Every structure is written in C-alpha cells, then in structure tokens.
C-alpha cells in the first residue's frame, strides 16, 4: 500500500473545508489562500486550487471580485456567499463530530 497516496487522499478530503475556513474572516486572492494553506503544512499546488475555487464558485459557495493591484495585474478576490457561510457552518459541525470520533478510536488504549 502506498502511504503517500493515502495521505494525499486525506488532504483532498479536507481541502474544501479548509479553503472555506480561510475565507471565513475576509476575502482573499488565490496566492493568499495558498500561503495560508502552506503555512498550516497543507501543501496544495495551483493546479489543484484553481479548479476547486471554480467549482466552489459554480456551486454558489463563493463569489469573487476583481481588484487593482499596485504590483501587477488585477487580482481576483474570493469570498464566501451566504450559502457558503451556511455550508461552512455545517462542515464545521461535521468536522467536529468526525474529529471527535477519530480521536476516540485512535486514542483508545488496548
């Protein structure tokens, strides 16, 4: 069994939740989102995040706006929609339940 494949699948499973959580407090452009994820040791490449941001936008969870940049082309800032806020609240609840269950199982003494 390939441990790297399993680890990658685990990361992919929480990536959507993490991106929505990054945008919970304030709008951000893609580089900021990537930096936040990388600083948390959740390694994500641009080729993964752009399609995911597009899918989240198409699902009505995110919106975006263009903002002029002083150091280059305009930047696309993503933010949560009202539906996205509700979705994130549900994911947070599910994450807590799942995390508690996994911790209970993996921390049991034999």
Automatic annotation (TrEMBL):
Residues 19-89 form the Transcription regulator PadR N-terminal domain. InterPro entries: Metal_resp_DNA-bind_regulator, Tscrpt_reg_PadR_N, WH-like_DNA-bd_sf, WH_DNA-bd_sf. Transmembrane segments: none annotated. This is PadR family transcriptional regulator. It comes from Flavobacterium caseinilyticum.
